[in-house]
Amino acid sequence: MDSDWSLIPSTVSPGDIILVRHNQPGKVNWLDKDYKLEPFGEGYFTYLPIGIGTKPGTYKIGNQVLTIQAKQFDTQSIKVTKQMASMKQETDRIQADQKKINLARSQSSPEFLFTTTFIQPVEGVLTTPYGYTRYVNGKLDSRHTAIDLAAKEGTPIHATNDGIVALADNLYLTGNSIYIDHGMHLFSQYAHMSKLLVKTGDKVKQGDIIGLVGTTGFSTGPHLHFTFWAHNVPVNPNLFFGTTPFHW
């Protein structure tokens, strides 16, 4: 019955997550992709990522209306050496790493692996928020779909929540990097570390030290590049800290 659809929340901004609940199994089509409704309580649910580039407006889900509000994101300019700038031209290495990442994120536990709220993985200074448009040496580079937390090299980095290490490897642009599977296609990403302290396949608990802050890969100083991937879409990490976007 259409009347048994619900959206939580029904008004969002780019970078957010929404929950969809229904009384029947099935699928939800969102931006030309199908999301399976999974059993939960007396009904079924799925969650949908609102990507940074999703157009503002109203969208129909079941008999409910989702409103996506426009959100203004700032810009950031950084300067790097010519040698570092040339790293972005190594397309073969970048594509090879992306295949590893895609494979790691293609498989996920069928259930959430966490039972509590999320923690910020490192104490540091926020230098780049989620959503910034970044210019490198005066040229448009990318949207920054993560947060950067500056800290002293060697500062411990903690698992934001329980999960399984889907990938722990040295990657060309993001340096020493970790992806943790938290279940149901939710992954946390940690990049530019000086040292990896876990390996692919390890089970981790919230607060476990998984690596140390560094400046490996395409990086201008010691920091942690951190984000969440929801169904392979990077979403705003601030949705998670001290809470969870999965409110019922």
How far apart, in Å, are the first and last alpha carbons? Answer: 20 Å
Shape call: globular
CATH class of the largest domain: Mainly Beta
CATH topology type of the largest domain? Glucose Permease (Domain IIA)
CATH superfamily of the largest domain: Glucose Permease (Domain IIA)
Unreliable stretches (pLDDT < 50, length at least 5) are none
Total of DSSP H or I helical runs spanning 4+ residues: 2
Tags for this model:
2 domains; 248 residues; Glucose Permease (Domain IIA); globular; single chain; mainly beta
Description:
The chain is mainly β and 248 residues long. The protein folds into 2 domains: 2-68, no CATH class; 75-239, Glucose Permease (Domain IIA) (Distorted Sandwich). The protein contains 2 helices and 22 strands. The strands form 5 sheets. Strands 10, 13, 15, 16, 17, 19, 21 and 22 form an 8-stranded antiparallel beta sheet that branches. The relative contact order is 0.18. Residues 143-237 form the M23ase beta-sheet core domain. One of its GO terms (molecular function) is metalloendopeptidase activity. This is M23 family metallopeptidase. InterPro entries: Cell_wall_metabolism_enzyme, Dup_hybrid_motif, M23ase_b-sheet_dom.
